Write the structure tokens for this entry.
Amino acid sequence: MNATETKSPSKKGTWDAELSKSMITAQGLTKHYGKFIAVSDISFSVPRGEVVAFLGPNGAGKSTTMKMLTGFLAPTRGRASIGGFDVFENRMDAAQVLGYLPENGPLYMEMTPKSLLWYCARLRGLSKVFTNSRIEYVVDRCSLGTVWEKPIGKLSKGFRQRVGMAQAILHDPAVLILDEPTSGLDPNQTHQVRDLIRSLAKSKTILLSTHVLSEVHAMCDRIILVNNGRVVLDGPVSELSDDITGMEKRFQELTA
């Protein structure tokens, strides 16, 4: 069964209502690999301007859900929208308003950050004037000046992660889906990325996957916690706990 098979007249009104008020919507997302169920009936919506942490232990279904939300992976059942556009029916429209940083996202190792970002800009059909201004912005915010013309294959994992972040925000998208954005960064680089996400949160809707609960406490408004492919908690950060120690304990209780 594919995504389009889940439509029915009885659900269309509900779906349209969700699209009108949410920047990110998941409705019954399910993914099977043979008999293995990676994700089972995940539903949630994220309104404009909210920063949501998408949490769960390894293998809980976080990355699979994010790939379905962004259209990189077709669900077995369910639907997804970005910026009011159905990801599978209006893929190109959804892509225009989405910035996606996958975990360990693929980069062209022989390219430099400069050539990669200009290549991405051309693929998106961005004007030269707009690209120039955005490249100046992302180079500064992602601290890429010192490696601007070095091959990406020669860069550290931390710098590669920053190149990935730069391409995700290059076109100034309204929605960001970030899968482990501080993975591989040293403490100083992590602090810079946190500051960047906080500044972006003033004007964008962000779904952020991370294993670092201190990042959730510092940056996020809400938590969606998944375990074994299902949502086990959806609410404000305080529902997990008001402090890091309490968050860790509650996380363990819900995902043991």
